[in-house]
Amino acid sequence: MKTYFLTLWWALFLGLLAITETQATHLRAGEITTRRISSTSLTYEVTMTTYHDEIGGRTASDQQDPSYFCFGIGPAVAVKRASRIVINRATTANTYVATFTYPGPGTYRITCTITNRNENVRNIPTSIQTSFQLQTTIVVNAALGLNSTPVLLNPPLDSARVGQKWCHNPAAYDADGDSLAYRLYVPSGKLNDEQGNCTLKSVSGYSDPTLIGVNRINEAGTGPATLTVNAITGDVCWDAPAEQGQYNIAFIVEEWRDGVKIGEIIRDMQIIVTASPNKRPAIQVPDDICVEAGTLIQRNITATDPDGNRVELSAYGGPFNVGPDGRPYLAADGKTRLNIISPEFATFSPTTAQNTPATGTFRWQTNCAHVRAEPYDVIFRVVDLPRGSGQTQLATLESFRIKIYAPKPQGLTARPAADAAGRAIILNWTAYACGVSSLPEGSQMVIYRKEGCSNVALDPCTNPGLAPSTGYVEVGRVGIGQTTFTDNNNNQGLKRGVQYSYRIVVMLPRPNNGQSVVSEQVCVNLPQQVPLITHVTVDSTFETRGVITVRWTRPPGINPNDGTGPFQYRLFRATGLTGTNFTQIAAITTTLQPTVADTVYTDRGLNTVANAYRYRIEFYFTEPGTGQLQRLDVTDNASSVRLTATGGVKRVQLKWEANVPWSNDNQQHRVYRSKTGPNGPFNLVAVVPVTTAASYVYTDQGADTYAADGVQPVSMSVDSNYCYRVETVGRYSAPLTTILLNNFSQGVCAMPIDTVKPCPPQLAVDTLNCAALTPEAFCNQTTFANNLTWQNPATGNCDRNIVKYNIYYTPCEGQDPVLLTSVNAPTLTFRHENLSSFAGCYQVTAVSRSGVESAPSNRVCKDNCPYLMLPNVFTPNGDGKNDVFQPMQCPRFVESAELTVVNRWGAKVYQSSDLSLKWNGKNSQGKDVPGGVYLYQVTVKFKRVNCSAPAEIIKGWVELLREAGNAN
Which top-level group of life is the source organism from (predicted)? Predict the structure, then answer.
């Protein structure tokens, strides 16, 4: 809740006439607003509201009809005045309304220039000769719908008092629920400007009003005077004026949607500063509130005056559905009422003068149509009515913010689908309390799901919606009139053994763009009619004889004596954590008797060094009557645990993962170490608390923090190999399967590395001197070679134990080089042969004995020396000498070329894309062309290290000599 103060100008206006001569000047304040009025065309209604001086500038105000609008395209257009409403004896509010249809989407600036401002504006030199310019910028795009700019509901009729902080708030309201932001702006205008000018220019010589006067300090006396705007609330404050007079300032109201600015309005306003002994009144408003739609909001606002003067209370804001003049909004015809908010509207009374202390009542019966994401701002004002003449009326403003949310959906239930094999959950809920007719078209019921049934505390005011941190994910949307939804995980089926929590919430489109309170959760899990895989654990790590044990449960929902036996498990395996190439590896027939060991399988002959493996089980029953096996359902896939180990500086970094239907989160996993090999024996060295898959990591620096099996720390030598396996711990979330599931990864080994990396080498490549090459250089040469040399830096903290160098190459600059080859140390040279050209870029890295690679060397690039020279005469007479127009010597590094020949009248006679660039003096139809001078153009693409370089164009002339009568 923000409080700010102002003095009311119009009651003291006559006392200021001494500083304002009666001249044909009249503009004090104004802004331009727009709204799209057609859903089938880009037609907008544009409204300019200006506030005119009716004492010092009555004549000019009378004559200000029409005004001229520039719509951002085309010339200025004359617009007649639609209304002229008396605000008080000194001021009128004037509106000019036009419609304009834009030809297409784009950003347009709507401007208006009016010839004169007031005279004697203190911070605008020669203000009487300076124009008053307004501008509003809109983004025209059909996708924005019937968008309108915000409207400014608090009129700019403010004045200030010397030495006292002054504030103004425009009470901006956006009917589309867009976000608003505010910033200061230098007023626009030009000397001796003409109406109809479409170009804005900042006022020449404009001064910040805080720089005018002698004692330029703030009201508290703690620092210099300031002029600021709160970017969020829109409070524009001048703390504090130093001298009397008229001043003009401007600020911008920006309109944002989904992080994109879609428009802005300039408000230019005038402030009259006086000196007055009167003390300003005080006002008290309620705290900001957040309520459910349908709540009756009724609050009292109280005001007192320290001088005992009578006071008047008033209020502004979107909930009242009235303009800044206090009258209902009307369409361009002046008759049709427009609503910027749905009924019912808020009221405030009384607004007549009262003795102090005074009380006013704000009343608003909210409903579902008032729900929106952005809060409503209401500005309350109290102005005193001092006794006696010559005293300035003072006013105080304070804001009251209201957030309205939609009611909570009720009656949510969940049950498994009748077809158990479908793995689906059916949700039902009662019809929404607001009703379809009271909500905007496109309102939806959004369904969320998470695994597990832990409750989440949600507050519709401080914590609306279901953020990702709650664990819920959106699984579907239906129209607001529907009351059921079937969740089958996008036809993939839900998991067995998992308990799911569901919640629903109503989402409203623009202009509301709000949402309801989240429903209560409902928890459910699928019936256990199939087995659950519980273990996929690696028993041994070998390339050809690795072993994995798979275990599962019997289906608890199946009665072995119900007459549908015998039953069968069919076990399938795929390679990889996410493998899909499942093949059947076993079929186990069972009667489901607990005395039979039929829920375990040992899978042998695997390459557990290179691969993880993934398993699933299909469950079959015997169909009564036919005796045929029929598949009832299939388990979710479960993989083995895959462990990776990477050597670090005196450490080994471990990371593991598994793709399983149970959760391994929020458990304590175990890390085992061995110095013997990937199959142990192992010693438990650490118990790692994990939360999510991102925390399945451990860095071994040699410690052994688990004492129960004997402490065996190591020094992490770079010459030693250390082997590991990890034991994960998990569980299903369904209540029937709360046992812990322990599974081992394969064994994996790694070596720590040295403390420092090798230094990057310094690389050089032999170069070409293109200027020194003869035209015959590289003629008819088809392969090329580049010679590389490098050196290791003599200084620096580097590992000097280099075992090899990696050479990286790319034929194009700007691309990342890829590994070309490696050479063993101490070799420091390399010849790159069999190239199609010299063009290419290189880098070299050094690799230490521990396998650590240095940073790349400097990048060195080498380019070709292209060459193409054409003659200026040829004689196609068939004597075997100079019969063909073609390049002289041989062209170098031509990748593609096109030759075009035209005669002296510009007619094309020949064109070819042959790399030889030959022309035999015939036209494209094969007939000889006559002798004479011809112009040619060669468009040639050379092989360059800059592979994206454009083709070059070579133009010239050639004379074709032919004996008379030789052309046909």
Answer: Bacteria
Q: H or E segment at 58?
A: helix 58-63
Distance (Å, rounded) from C-alpha 382 to C-alpha 284? 10
CATH topology of domain 413-525: Immunoglobulin-like (2.60.40)
Please, where in the chain does CATH 2.60.40.10 lie?
A: 282-314+338-405, 413-525, 533-639, 642-750, 762-771+778-862
CATH topology of domain 642-750: Immunoglobulin-like (2.60.40)
For 422-479, write each residue's pLDDT tens digit: 689 999 999 999 988 888 888 999 999 998 888 888 888 877 778 888 889 999 999 9
* Contact criterion met (CB below 8 Å) for 897 and 930: no
Residue 627: C-alpha distances to residues 421, 561, 563 (Å)? 20, 15, 11
Q: Are strands 158-161 and 260-274 parallel, antiparallel or unpaired?
A: parallel
Q: Is 718 exposed, middle or buried (0-12, 13-18, 19+ CB in 10 A)?
A: middle
Nearest to 443 by CA among 506, 359, 400, 497: 506
Please state the φ and ψ torsions of residue 40, each to the nearest 5 degrees. -110, -10
């070709």: which residue's tokens? 864
CATH number for 762-771+778-862 (one of 1.25.40.10, 2.60.40.10, 3.40.50.150, 3.20.20.70): it is: 2.60.40.10
Burial state string for 617-627 with b = 16 or more CB within 10 A and e = fewer than 16: bbbbbbeeeee
Q: What is the pLDDT of residues 807-837, one digit of tens each?
A: 999 999 989 999 999 999 999 999 999 999 9
Proportion of the chain above pLDDT 90, given as a percent: 62
- Range in 15-24, 170-179, 673-682, 855-864 the model is least confident about: 15-24
Euclidean distance between CA atoms 386 and 275, whole angstroms: 14
| CATH architecture observed for domain 873-960 | Sandwich (2.60)
Top CATH class of 282-314+338-405 equals: mainly beta
Could you tell me the pLDDT band of residue 122, with boundaries at 50, 70 and 90? very high
Tell me which range, 164-168, 306-310, 686-690, is most confidently predicted by mean pLDDT.
Answer: 686-690
Residue 232 CA to residue 512 CA, distance in Å, equals 20
CATH architecture of 533-639: Sandwich (2.60)
Beta bridge pairs of residue 589: 568
Q: Which amino acid is at 565?
A: G
Pull the structure tokens for residue 219.
Answer: 């009201």
Which strands form 413-416's sheet, in the order they lie side by side?
413-416, 425-428, 484-487
Strand 289-292 to strand 158-161: parallel, antiparallel, or no bridges (unpaired)? unpaired
Name the DSSP letter for residue 280.
P
| Confidence at residue 967, expressed as pLDDT on a 0 to 100 scale | 46
pLDDT score of 18 more than 80: no
Mean pLDDT (the chain, rounded): 89
CA distance 501 to 487: 12
Structure tokens at 430: 């009662």
**The tokens 């925390």 sit on which residue?**
695
Query: Helix (H, G, I), strand (E, B), or coil: what is residue 852?
Result: coil
755-789 pLDDT, tens per residue? 678 899 999 999 999 988 888 889 888 899 999 99
Q: How many Å is the Cα radius of gyration of the chain? A: 42
- Residue 17 confidence (pLDDT): 34
Neighbours of 59 (CB within 10 A): 13
* Locus of tokens 């579907």: 476
228-260 burial: b if 16+ Cβ within 10 Å, else e: ebeeebbbbbbbbbbebbbbbbbbbbbbebeee
Cα–Cα distance measured from residue 317 to residue 300, given in angstroms and rounded to the nearest whole number? 17
Show Cβ contacts of residue 503 under 8 Å, excluding neighbours closer than 6 positions. Answer: 412, 447, 448, 466, 472, 518, 519, 520, 521, 522
